Amino acid sequence: MVPIVKVVEFIGKKEGLQLPPGFAARIAEKSGRSLRRAILSFETCRVQQYPFTNNQVIPPMDWEEYIFEIASDIMKEQSPKRLFQVRGKLYELLVNCIPPEIILKRLLYELLKKLDFELKHEVCHWAAYYEHRMRLGQKAIFHIEAFVAKFMSIYKGFLIATFG
Question: Closest Cα to residue 29, out of 51, 1, 54?
Fold first, then answer.
């Protein structure tokens, strides 16, 4: 992470921006070891608020918020209608050049945060299964959508077994 901190500080210096202590380190940490992402986050922070403050929030990327919204949609309702709505949102992400592997990984991450401990292992298994199939296949949307459908099935079964 240190090289990312140095790059962010260098960019800030070249742009004539004052960075509070630790601000570049927080951006580097939030970027998940991605220089491109760190630079985009730095630019977003600059647009949202300058001069920077010590407690300034580093916002997530728009596509991450969108995947969070998809995960929330999936958790609220498990139905063919909802699956169709989610498919449209997944297409939107793919059309905007978000790699399918990243979509699946981030969606899994968001779903796992909301799941009961009993289901996490099974959901991870199916995510790995569909990721593998996606790498072998042609159309990523089919595999991501199949994962969502499988998740809905598992989760709905869990809810019925738990709450009747």
Answer: 1
- Tens digit of each residue's pLDDT (9 = 90 or more) over 122-142: 999 999 999 999 999 889 999
Per the rule left: phi > 0, alpha: psi between -120 and 50, beta: everything else, 31 is alpha
Q: What is the DSSP string of 111-144?
A: HHHHS-HHHHHHHHHHHHHHHHHHHHSS-HHHHH
Query: Residue 107 and residue 37: Cα distance in Å, rounded?
Result: 18
Please tell me the pTM assigned to this model: 0.77
Distance, in Å, from the CA atom of 161 to the CA atom of 164, rounded to the nearest integer, reads 6
